[in-house]
Design a protein that fits this description.
2 copies of one chain form a homodimer. With 424 residues, chain A is an alpha/beta fold. Chain A contains 14 helices and 13 strands.
Chain lengths: 424, 424
């Protein structure tokens, strides 16, 4: 049999970059990985989860529904709590906006599942997604698998460069490609990989721009806001989500997750969506799994309606703040001055940029030497889309203080600094 | 904005039949639903799950990995146990076959997720899936959403009618459509909706037939075996899975689940797949969720490696046996003799066929009258694919003894019998 039976999607889906990095990591037992997007191990809420589960499973009244099928949209109570929590956050961030409701909300198997379903719902092969340059590399995997075209928009300290976004839209208008543009994807809080947070003002202006170009697209162009890291702020003030731009609420697809702020092993994500999109998402999710595992949902319902979640968050933030300081202190001590990086205010990542003449990619001397010195980073090139309108940058590194412990953070940065000094 | 931004898939995915049935159910508070595919509430393993979780979360050594991200393929220990359990089942069913291995195995968010991913991996719009007539209606949702063509193969008491399968293949060969045929989908144990179990002999013969026609397809034609109800046998002997047909092991996609035999709220499914398909499945699952929630997986690992799972199964089987008897006794008492049905040997369903002149569909008088009498069944028509080569049958009902308690099973069947008597 010569030909394969695979579909277009089956044939074109590439192995995720992260698998390769994990294999590399496994092959070197003394390696310090600053690559993985794992969350902090020591602060995982073991006792809280155990107590919540004990409570849930002790009584048939709460235990049975937790071990039974639910509905595709999710536990009604969790949908309600999720809408309320997201609204409170926006209000606390200064927004004046009507309450978000359970009926706008869907609970998913991580927010990743929702990113996948939204892309399925909106994008045909050849369609265009505009995204940050660089962006979350697993999203690039979704786009690649669905044979989408990507256009990158440069980042500034407070989020995407609006002038560049306008330029991209204008050039797509000129080339007649706007009808293919379905959405702008933004990782809006402590962005993976750069740590950048997009200001609320910029989200509103981006929505205005999208609306302006919609008439040439002939259909809505959505803002897909991925707020996965929102809860992980340890300094500065929260920005409101795009949901708070009430005038544009029919264009905002808001996704976030309890995985990062509570436990990645519990894996509960969610979305707050306009009704016509939510309806399609539920139809598609009906085919994916007809509902996220109820036990996981009930843990989050219990965590949010007790004090467990609210007590856990400040501890988690303090922990990441400490690990971030460990990392940045080590960077200051060990990295050559030509490396550019910014102090993180939340999230899990520092983005370090070396001069353009130095390459950092998987095939680069820098990456190989780092590996030989038992330290692993995510090569920046993996976070850039295949955007034919620019050359793919290849001189940055994503380094994470999420998974490694403080000793290894310091050790890893010292090793990486030593390697960088050889190149600079 | 007149046009929508939806993709082909977004536009063509229909609302799942089950949502409509659930809405109907909610609108009538005294309704007895024999429609839902819910599992039995009273036998859900509350105490066992609580104890397992208490044990897992008590120690950081086991608790932390349970609350952390894992790998896309799943917990290595659970993959190993799953391969071993599936192999033992086949050996116990009389098969002589080499061990299945962890490296062939993937853990998924229910087996539904794997059915979805396998279909994505193999099928482009317009491709053909051959399936049982009738079949699992949520699979029909996946096929419909992906704009697949379906061809139904009639069922006999021991599984698909092989002569009809050959006839379908032959006619696809003649019309030049074999290159579009990607797989034969069989729900092989206590099939949803008919309760039919496919004999091992028939699986082997189906694989032989598929292989014979492959040369005209120009690529492999897979047997997708959905063994979701396998563990729910309460009488008779187990049949080996198609995996045991070693000669054809490169063509068998075996999917099953712990949701039904353990807890649907825990939602852990799995697959045992040929390496070239597993690789693609893992790439796609990397984009879906990069791994099933670890906490759920660790519960199943603990259940399988302790006595919890093995102790639970016989209790569960006894419970379903009892509920099945309650249902069949009530059927014997209340249904007119013209209704054809078979004694279930496992699973959750009885399939009842009324004479052809009586319609049972959602718009039928029978269905409406049943609803007015506060009893809900799944209309058989929902379980039939849109196969242009035959008229869709519309005179059967799927009635489930899974979710309802014994009192309601008896009550529901009495009501349904009363309605049927008006029509016969």
């Amino acid at each position: 049999m010569k030909r394969s039976a695979l579909s277009e999607l089956g044939r074109s889906t590439e192995p995720p970059a992260i698998s390769w990095l994990m294999e590399v990591a496994l092959s070197r037992p003394n390696l310090v990985s600053l690559a993985a997007g794992f969350t902090d191990n020591e602060s995982l809420p073991l006792n809280q989860t155990r107590e919540l589960l004990d409570e849930i499973l002790r009584s048939p009244k709460t235990g049975r529904p937790a071990l039974q099928y639910g509905t595709t949209a999710g536990d009604p109570e969790l949908r309600k709590l999720t809408a309320a929590v997201s609204h409170s956050q926006d209000v606390a961030a200064g927004a004046k906006v009507a309450k978000y409701t359970a009926s706008q909300t869907v609970i998913t198997h991580g927010s990743q599942q929702l990113l996948y379903i939204l892309t399925e719902a909106l994008c045909d092969p050849g369609d265009i997604v505009i995204l940050e340059d660089p962006t979350y590399f697993v999203y690039l995997g979704i786009a690649q698998s669905h044979r989408l075209q990507c256009r990158g928009v440069r980042l500034e300290a407070d989020g995407i460069d609006l002038a560049h976004l306008e330029q991209v839209l204008e050039s797509l208008k000129k080339s007649g490609d706007l009808p293919r543009v379905k959405m702008l994807y933004l990782v809006s809080y402590f962005q993976n990989p750069t740590g950048t947070t997009t200001s609320f003002a910029k989200k509103v202006k981006a929505l205005e721009l999208l609306r302006r170009y919609e008439k040439f697209a002939g259909h809505p162009i959505y803002l897909l806001e991925d707020a996965a890291y929102r809860e992980l702020r340890f300094s500065g003030a929260d920005e409101a989500s795009a949901l708070a731009a009430a005038k544009f609420s029919d264009r905002v697809l808001y996704t976030s997750t309890y995985s990062k702020p509570f436990a990645t092993g519990v894996r509960v994500g969610f979305g707050i969506l306009p009704p016509e999109i939510l309806e399609v998402v539920l139809r598609i999710k009906g085919n994916h799994d007809f509902g996220t595992a109820n036990l996981l949902q009930r843990i989050m319902t219990a965590a949010l309606s007790s004090t467990a979640y609210d007590k856990h968050l400040p501890q988690l933030r303090a922990r990441y703040a400490k690990k971030a300081i460990t990392m940045t202190n080590a960077i200051r001590e060990h990295f050559p001055s030509q490396v550019e990086w910014a102090e993180p205010a939340g999230g899990l990542y520092v983005w370090a940029k070396v001069p353009d003449k130095i390459k950092s990619g998987t095939k680069s001397k820098l990456f190989q030497t780092a590996l030989e010195n038992d330290v692993l980073y995510v090569p920046g090139e993996l976070c850039y889309a295949n955007d034919p309108t620019r050359r793919k940058p290849n001189s940055a590194m994503r380094i994470s203080f999420g998974g490694a412990n403080e000793k290894n953070i310091a050790l890893g940065i010292a090793r990486l600094g030593g390697v960088l000094k050889k190149f600079l």
